[in-house]
Amino acid sequence: MKNDRVIFRVDGSVEMGMGHLTRCLTLAGALAEHGARSCFLMRGHAAGLAELVQRNGHAVQLLPDPDAWTPGTIQDGGLHAHWLPTTWQGDAEQTSRAMDGLGPADWLVVDHYALDARWESACRREGLRILAIDDLADRAHGCDILLDQNLVRQMDTRYRDRLPEACVRLLGPRYALLRPDFLAQRRLLTGRSGKIGRILVCYGGSDPTNETARAVRALANLAIPSVAVDVVVGMSNPHVESIARLCSGLPRAEVHRGANNIAELMRQADLSIGAGGVMSWERCCLGLPAVVVDIAANQVGALTALADRGAALYLGAAASVTVEALGNAIGELMDDSNRARALGEAAFALVDGEGRSRVAAACG
User: Fold this and answer.
1) Cα distance between residue 90 and residue 150, in whole Å
2) Between 323-334 and 337-348, two packed helices, what is the crossing angle to 10 degrees?
3) Is 191 a member of any domain?
4) Could you tell me which NCBIfam families the record lists for this protein (predicted)?
5) For residues 170 and 285, what is the distance between their CA atoms, to the nearest angstrom?
């Protein structure tokens, strides 16, 4: 891919979460190792994330938002049409103009629930190949490669009739886009006994419903002073001060804001409390037993499949899980090291940390 130009079309926000941008940055990093140059096209409302893209060594260009937020309708743009401040047609026009200004590109990578085959067709150019990253399988794609890194029931058939016949399908956690530090930390693992002396609480980069506080309260109710607790919150989390106050009531708790060593924290932990999304595969890579809830409908399929494989203790939708229920689940694992160890072993077998290299090779 030496000297290839890659365009990424992705956004991030509290509602969308950071997972889409995180996995695109991971892929861009892998492609850069092969000599590719990447530029991220993002909506204006994601301007605060531009610095993150640039810190990772990539160019970024913002697509201007309209003065009034006028998203497409569900009928026209799908269930996530409101994730755009304009219609998919308007976004395609702006993306096309930006691409024309950047010059010929070799790949267009799109990771956005509000965009589908119509948008991809409108943005296609001669010689341009398209990689679509998805995990919903709720719409058609006109792409050359489809990446769905999730473990979901009926994975091999759920994109049937939604992709071109010649489309290459990269399906399952074998292709999970994880940063290189997860593979590095995996190689440092010396085995897990199942005994729980350190717990990691992390619900991703946004946590809009403050599930972190619920988890901290559950740990406080267990009142086990010997257990160390690492609580990770995103830089934009509006609840950080109240979370810090809650953590002050735990004898061995530490709050990590915007932690850039999450892989190391996962390796050091014996149990994780969190949600779905990209973090599911990060935990698996490090064989970390987990008590999880879903905080969005698109997390249900993967968390259900993980539970089916015995790779996570899935309690259901976050809104329906009480502090008491969460505490009981944590306590049960603390009392049963064999079960905790089995959860970690099943998770460890699912993700080997080499997914980014496999996806990069498929684009070669």
Assistant:
1) 30
2) 90
3) yes
4) PseG
5) 18
Q: 202: which 2 tokens?
A: 């992390």
Residue 103 backbone zone (phi > 0: left; psi -120 to 50: alpha; other: beta): left
Instruction: Write out the catalytic residue numbers.
Output: 20
φ, ψ at 169 (rounded to 5°): -105, 120
Stretch (H or E) spanning 145: strand 145-148
Measured between alpha carbons, how far is 152 from 303 in angstroms, rounded to an integer? 8
CA-nearest of 301, 331, 189, 265 to 339 is 331
User: Phi-psi region for residue 114, left (φ > 0), alpha (ψ -120 to 50) or beta?
Assistant: alpha
What is the full DSSP assignment across 115-126?
Answer: --HHHHHHH--T
Per-residue pLDDT tens, the chain, 364 aa: give them. Answer: 677 999 999 998 877 888 899 999 999 999 999 999 999 999 988 888 999 999 999 999 999 998 887 766 656 667 888 889 999 999 999 999 999 999 999 999 999 999 999 999 999 999 999 999 999 999 999 999 999 999 988 888 999 999 999 999 999 999 999 999 999 999 999 989 999 999 999 998 778 899 999 999 999 999 999 999 999 998 878 899 999 999 999 999 999 998 999 999 999 999 999 999 999 999 999 999 999 999 988 899 999 999 999 999 999 999 999 999 999 999 999 999 999 999 999 999 999 999 999 999 999 8
CB 195 within 8 A of CB 270: yes
CB 335 within 8 A of CB 228: no
Residues annotated within a binding site: 179, 282
Instruction: Decide the pairing of beta strands 168-171 and 107-111.
Output: unpaired
> Whole domain around residue 308: which residue ranges?
181-348
Report which residue type is found at 165.
E
Structural domain includes residue 361: no
Other CB atoms closer than 10 Å to residue 102's CB: what's the count?
14
Only one residue has tokens 């970024």, namely 60
Q: Work out how many domains the chain is built from and give that number.
A: 2
Please indicate, yes or no, if residue 343 is contained in any of the structural domains.
yes
- Give the residue numbers of the binding site for substrate: 179, 282
CATH number at residue 60: 3.40.50.11190
